[in-house]
């Protein structure tokens, strides 16, 4: 049972609603004696927090994390780490008929269908604010992984406009408000998203996450596959509709000859792969190549254009979402994607150590 | 921990290797008093079994299932159901240098990297023979779901050739060896795959699985999401490299206006959705619309064209896979996809009942 | 993996140390639409909190619970419920050589052996303060169970002095500081424990927990047995060294004739049991009779008499525990026992509903 | 969810009924490269199998185990190990009114109350035959633990007659049909049990299990405690009604001074404990001393003396159990107890390695 828990050995449970007093997570299973301070976590939260450019929601949240347990004299103790982030800008307002209407693309209707009740303030539990807790957990997961593994994500497509792969540069990612690895494309996106934002519209995106330095042998057949775990990790992020590993959907178009990642003898007796169609995973187990995951984020469902819907009484209504929102929610999914990659890898590192010593 | 177990309340554990004496699964948590006989399972296994056309491997396996426990006088008893399928055509042969060489695209290298040992006969545990156990479990899951839910899958793309959606007809699916819902496309695929087969090559495919009749309210935030569970379910199938829900990767290209599934008042006070970009899932919970999942299957890695690789000693080798293989392994993934959809839904039906009564 | 999580469908994860800023728990899986307010929980915490008589530790903690998530407009929403209790009396003091010495009977040495680090302030994570979170979770579990099930616990033995069963009266339990169901025995215990307290010594106890109104059919073979779950629940409470169901250890002394709980036809076609040696559980499943569990609590390890031990450097030391402590820690185990019974039953109620409708 | 699965990292799932074609278990998570053959398991099964003396049931079962998967060329591969034992002496007979009557002390009534159906042949799933699968799993767990850990169990009390501790000798255990470590007591038990057997009666027993060589540091607070896991492990064995760790129920009678296991400086900087009231576990974590568990087994419920009961129609009946049965089912619980100790320790060895490296 894991409705609000992710992971097996490195596992975290998140709690909190968009407009409740706070949100957070309990991280269990963390190895002892790791250096851990709030500053190690805050930097990642800052990357995700709203209101940093005109391209993200204008909700003002400092997202300050507090370590409530599990750390003693600056080191992890092996006991559960509780991280808490207070909500400070859950603006008091009249939700009016939004409280009873089902916004298209949101979880309003399905929460009522399931539970018969929902916290309608800011989306309640279904709000992307929950991902702050993931980012915090991801920061701890990076500590578990140690310095040998590099995890980075970038936005590689916005709407129909993908980056130019020949210009891919990780160093560009933090130079623009889109986490875009291609400066030229970032410039074009700026104009485009500005227009979308002014129209009260929104647009989808594709995020790519890459982990380098993962040794061969992590993961496990057949229901603990590293790729299957990454699929559920990414698909659990708000608004994600598809997950690709390596060649992804394109793999369907290839022949066996094209898809084969050939090997040559490499260093230390390890094979040196000549390509990475597999995305660093074969049979659910890492190959030692970069682990490459991409996922599609749908456009923010909150838009200014009126949409037809119904309310809790089954009556026809028109829904317009004013308020604060992200015109491209994919942007803030970038640090969340890194965090989910980190927690999956930390879990598999520990699983591998448990079984294979 | 669930290396070989799938599901929470409806859960099954598979065991067995390609060339061992048998394979099977233990299904735990099945409700009591369901009618269950071997005949209820055999039909689904027959659909998956090899050697049914020239387009699948020529290994001859009757795949006869035996119920070893959990059924008394034709009814489930609530205790674990053990299903066993004996391997009969695990041809004795000289594996020669394949035993020491790493076939590109296969799990040979990663198993050695992880475990230091592998059963190289027919791929051992990494063989797609394991999916026979999934299909058997899926047949039991359908019993749990009952007659109100229809689960069907089809192959909708082979290589670059997708079906024509205007000709989509579920009734065509069993009229051709590809589970193709479009008779015209099936005819073209026949020629194409025949050529590929004769060349000893292989090709990828896209499978679509649809569940109709799923009530609104199944699934759960935030790590028990129905779509996240479907993602891990499909990604765990051999050779799958991408999973899409509803609009899938295309969602990245849409605006908020295009992506919104508008609602009108429907029957019984339920909303009547005007489109299904969501694929029947919002916020991880079913909407009552058809649940739509697609996934990409890479081309079979076993091909006649020599590929460069290394062996267990780190030496350069060339690998050619003769023997029996599927030129398009996506075909036999169709009944497996249905089975995985069924087990995920059965699990969520029970989870929903547990929490929401 | 469940180092800090208890339960399957009704499950809670506790966090926090004795002298950290706060402690709490996340309760996941709670059904929606249950009335829940802090007042529903506080009463149970008050029963457990320290400093209520001279027979318990003089640490002053108000143990005020805050609901941080999962409740909206007074009702549960089906999303995780975070409960937080701030620590207010984590007295600043010089721990001196206690910080490096291993107190006999405490977890000091084993935490160091496992983790290489320990929060020595008040026992850190191994402190019985963690049980406040269990009591809070138990209050929510009672809501899940509803009014038809009565859960009560009592202290039935202190040292070698057991109650007189003929005087057992649940109404007496709250009339004395021992939760003793026998007023006469309570009076004798008062004198005895006063002497022990003044000597700086401590004494063990036996607690009995009884759940009435549990319907027949909860529990499950063979590793989800109701009695096995109760065993792990009670054994996980600090200082517990034995758990009995029904006849318990005495069952070893009985013949088959003596142990048989005979049945006569009862109401509604249900059997009317003539005795309850089974403690309300047969084959791991409830019989409809009262579920009866007893457990032994060892004497508090913190005593004034010097005990031989070693320190972290492997040197011989003498340990004397001054400070605040419970002379009979069994007393405060009573509300904890009720809570653990409640959470196990709530979990099995939901498990039963999931599988058997 | 773990109705039929035990363990976290070393975990096994059992299946099968008393009178079905076979029973077995799937063991998942086993480290690779361990030597494993059927002969390694068979010896333990032989110790448990029925019909070895007049003091156990006369059912004749060879209990021959077959390894169906997970082992290649004599070594574990890291994939699931399926072990199967065929039932050969499930005597065809007329169950007559037993099929509809609820035998006191058996799980007949509770299975019907839960599931509405039961396999009444030989107790079906509730039969102690299930423990054969546990013993098989225990043999594999011993392989995981390696040679440094010794696990032994003995029957230390039959009815009211306990062994004389001064004569405790592990070497005696296999010299008598009771696994009794005291030859003198074994002689007395022989006469006593013979009389009980001839009367068609039965008697309870106490079993003690001791693990030596367990390093300090295995186990985990607060719901992964080694003692709590042992409690659930032993309580899940058929007919067990109580579990004790170390001093057990007697701990309730002790003062803090009596209960303190004092320490002196020992070898390698480790403490040398002066007593073992704790049973080798403090705060849920092993101390390095012997881990000592005892449990009470109730008398076999199958007896010749007529007992009052009801049938499935709610009518009064008298139940007499003829057929084959164990007059003291505690005897055959001895190898089962060893197996459960082994699986719990193997699991915790792997858990410790995962978190603490």
UniProtKB/TrEMBL annotation, chains A, B, C, D:
Matches recorded under PROSITE patterns: CHORISMATE_SYNTHASE_1, CHORISMATE_SYNTHASE_2, CHORISMATE_SYNTHASE_3
UniProt-recorded name of the protein: Chorismate synthase
Enzyme Commission numbers on file: 4.2.3.5
Binding-site positions, FMN: 125-127, 238-239, 283, 298-302, 324
Gene field: aroC
Protein residues bound to NADP(+): 48, 54
Any single biological process term in GO: amino acid biosynthetic process
Keyword NADP assigned: yes
Organism from which the protein derives: Gimibacter soli
Pfam families given in the database record: Chorismate_synt
């Amino acid at each position: 049972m894991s409705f609000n828990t992710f992971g097996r050995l490195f596992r975290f449970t998140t709690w909190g609603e968009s407009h409740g007093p706070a949100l957070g997570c309990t991280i269990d299973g963390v190895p002892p004696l790791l250096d851990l301070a709030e500053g190690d976590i805050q930097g990642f939260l800052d990357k995700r927090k709203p209101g940093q450019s005109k391209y993200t929601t204008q909700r003002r949240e400092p997202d300050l994390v507090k370590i409530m347990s599990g750390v003693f004299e600056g080191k992890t103790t092996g006991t559960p780490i509780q991280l808490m982030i207070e909500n400070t800008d859950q603006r008091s307002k009249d939700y009016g008929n939004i409280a009873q209407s089902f916004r298209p693309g949101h979880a309003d209707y399905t929460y009522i269908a399931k539970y018969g009740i929902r916290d309608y303030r800011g989306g309640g539990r279904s709000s992307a604010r929950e991902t702050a807790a993931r980012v915090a957990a991801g920061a701890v997961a990076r500590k578990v992984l140690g310095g040998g593994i590099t995890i980075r994500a970038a936005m590689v497509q916005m709407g129909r406009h993908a980056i130019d792969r020949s210009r891919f540069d990780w160093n560009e990612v933090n130079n623009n408000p889109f986490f875009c690895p291609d400066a030229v494309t970032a410039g074009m996106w700026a104009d485009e998203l500005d227009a979308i934002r002014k129209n009260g519209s929104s647009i989808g995106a594709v995020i790519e996450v890459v982990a380098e330095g993962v040794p061969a042998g992590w993961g496990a057949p057949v229901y603990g596959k590293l790729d299957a775990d990454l699929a559920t990790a990414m698909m659990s992020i708000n608004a994600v509709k598809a997950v690709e590993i390596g060649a992804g959907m394109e793999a369907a178009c290839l022949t066996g000859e094209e898809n084969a990642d050939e090997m040559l003898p490499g260093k230390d007796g390890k094979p040196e792969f000549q390509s990475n169609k597999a995305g660093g995973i074969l049979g659910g187990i890492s190959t030692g190549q970069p682990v490459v995951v991409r996922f599609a984020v749908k456009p923010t469902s909150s838009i200014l254009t009126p949409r037809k819907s119904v309310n809790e009484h089954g009556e026809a209504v028109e829904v317009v979402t004013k308020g604060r929102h992200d015109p491209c929610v994919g942007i803030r999914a970038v640090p969340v994607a890194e965090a989910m990659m980190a927690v999956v890898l930390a879990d598999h590192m520990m699983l591998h150590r448990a079984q294979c010593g």
